[in-house]
Amino acid sequence: MRGFLPICGAKKNRLHPESIPRIILSLSLGVSPDFAMDWRKKEACARLMALGLLVFTVAGCAKTPRIPLGDDPPGDGLRRNSALEATLDRRLATSGNRVTLLPNGMRTFEAMFAAMREARDRIDLEYYIFEDVRVGAESLCELLTEKLRSGVAVNVILDGYGSSRTDPEFLARLRKAGARIVVFHPLTPEAILELTRVNDRDHRKILVVDGKVGFLGGVNLARVYENHSDPRAAERGDFRHAYWSDIAARIEGPA
């Protein structure tokens, strides 16, 4: 600190009032005192503005509201809350549902493909990453185009950033077959310049078949989940077959 004080305008270990903002700026942004003292210069101002903008973009959009903790409701709380929900928006808790946990990507894809093969009316997909994944010899593109030819509607919502590396030919084939595909917040030059919304992304991972069977969870339709995971692959530098662990759920019933 002694070496720090003279640089910031202090004499005999006493701080000048005008030096205090420079010290705060230096410590909070992690810049040198010399740089903080140059804040009046155009170059330094430009750097600080760019740094502040970066901090705002990264941290400003990641805030979540605080939820106060409390005790569990009394025994009749569930009935009271159910009645309140029914009065406000008619969303009732239902019984007769079946939930099956799917512990990894391959199990998830197998269950999803099986459900889509049985589709008779519509297939609705909403994914952050939407790629042409495979189960055995069958690809997602082949399965969906076959269902489209049989008269099943296919609707897709994909994220503009998460699916930015998706093969355009895959999407073109689906569109040509009749699929409706919507890109959420596409990466256009105008969208990129909207810095307050650049991280506004659709992280949903949802598949609904005929309005009766649904899938949700942490598994994207991404090819990294196709591989039979090898826990030691990363140690060998083989990141293509590294261990990916995500969970999904298959839901069936009135829910």
From TrEMBL:
Coiled coil: none annotated. GO terms for molecular function: cardiolipin synthase activity. InterPro entries: PLD-like_dom (IPR025202), PLipase_D/transphosphatidylase (IPR001736). It comes from the Bacteria. One of its GO terms (biological process) is cardiolipin biosynthetic process. SUPFAM superfamilies: Phospholipase D/nuclease (SSF56024). One of its GO terms (cellular component) is membrane. Residues 198-225 form the PLD phosphodiesterase domain. It holds the Pfam family PLDc_2. This is Partial cardiolipin synthase A/B. It comes from Methylacidimicrobium cyclopophantes. The gene is clsA_B.
